[in-house]
Amino acid sequence: MFVARSIAADHKDLIHDVSYDFHGRRMATCSSDQSVKVWDKSESGEWHCTASWKTHSGSVWRVTWAHPEFGQVLASCSFDRTAAVWEEIVGESNDKQRGQSHWIKRTTLVDSRTSVTDVKFAPKHMGLMLTTCSADGVVRIYEAPDVMNLSQWSLQHEISCKLSCSCISWNPSSSRAHPPMIAVGSDDSNVMYGGKVQIYEYNENTRKYAKAETLMTVTDAVHDIAFSPNLGRSFHVLAIATKDVRIFKLVPLRKESSSTGPTKFEVQIVAQFDNHNSQVWRVSWNITSTLLASSGDDGCVRLWKANYMDNWKCTGILKGDGSPVNGSSGQPGAMNTMVGSTVQTSQNALNGSAAGRYFFPPLDAPRAGSRYGHLLPPPSLIEHSDAQSSAPWFPHSQLPQSPLAIHGQPPQSPLSLHRLYSHSRALNTLPEHD
Asked: What are the start and end residues of each WD repeat (predicted)?
């Protein structure tokens, strides 16, 4: 059963990001109070703050976990123009914190001259690499040559994007047919300038990243961007959070044997939704890339799923406080293949703030004692698109948590972190025609 819970986070200012570790058992939050808090999930499902410390001298925009094979490692980025790497260690026998874990700063990355707006670890098959993007329009890629010594990071690449950068996403594909690829979104306010999303690809010959594609139809400020997990597909799927939700398909075109340039793509927009009727701040995929979750200034999390004909529909609407969705604003629907839609939003973006920067976490482990650990939410919290909606979806029984804010309302203190949906798997067998 879906239960909406809140956590008294005790941050002194607005929470900008929530990040879950690989297993979904740990959570990190960051805030304009310049602090990061780490939360651990107990066997009873309760979240407890196990660490809290001041990390930067400015608002902390994002926090992210490294893959656990590299240890318990966090990275944060801030308005103070820096990014930092933190590692959890256990106190030595002669330490007054004997047996207790605590977080220490391993390094500070100071190359940016402006606010560092996003930080992401690269997919683990690439090694321990960290990427930042800044308001100065530069994406920087760092590498830790020795994973046992996180105090040493070398700047490997600098990519100039010309526009101020707001978010980045690595293509998670580990296929040798797909070179490393990164998508960069811009929140530049000039709507006359198209191409707010740029795709960069690594070239083995030049050993540099080159621009492979620009999505010219995206002209509004981009707040979040997410490649879907690639489970053997030949093409890539990219979700974008702007004034609406958009899903693009990037199909690589066959390269000539003599070609040494970046891959060319056929860009298709497969879905576009304005159901939030406001700015969309986060998009996140489940681990099988069959379900997309989005959050917006309407205070709702909306779930999108494609049927066997690749038609995307809204399959659920969740409110952060657990109340049912009422009114026409909750009517799901889809606008497929709408390039350059002129749908007007009823609310403007938050003026110059990152108040809407909210995160959808990865999956949580199935609950002990349950064969599948999957249950449907109660009817009051889910709204189906129609009687002949897309293929059935099955949310996870453990629903991770994330903050939501409704446009125009001041941040609450303490700001509650609400239960959000992030993972689904089809458990029953689909009909033959599916």
From this structure: 8-40, 273-305
The Cα 411–Cα 269 span in angstroms is 35
How far is it, in rounded angstroms, from Cα 56 to Cα 309?
A: 48
The secondary element (H helix, E strand) that includes residue 133 is strand 129-134
CA distance 386 to 42: 38
**CB distance 222 to 171 below 8 Å:** no
Tell which residue, 66, 58, 14, 59, has the closest CA to residue 417.
14
Instruction: Report the C-alpha gap between 359 and 362 in whole angstroms.
Output: 10
4 token code pair: 């909406």
Which two three-digit tokens encode residue 45? 């499902």
Q: How far apart are CA 63 and CA 295, in angstroms?
A: 18
Q: 269-327: per-residue pLDDT in tens?
A: 999 998 888 899 999 998 888 899 999 888 888 999 988 888 999 988 888 777 767 54
Torsion 173-174-178-181 (CA) sign: positive
Alpha-carbon gap, residue 5 to 45, rounded angstroms: 10
Place of tokens 């002949």: 388
| Chain segment 207-251, per-residue pLDDT in tens | 999 999 899 989 888 999 999 998 888 899 999 999 999 999 999
Return phi, psi of residue 330, to 5°: -90, 5
d(CA 425, CA 42): 24
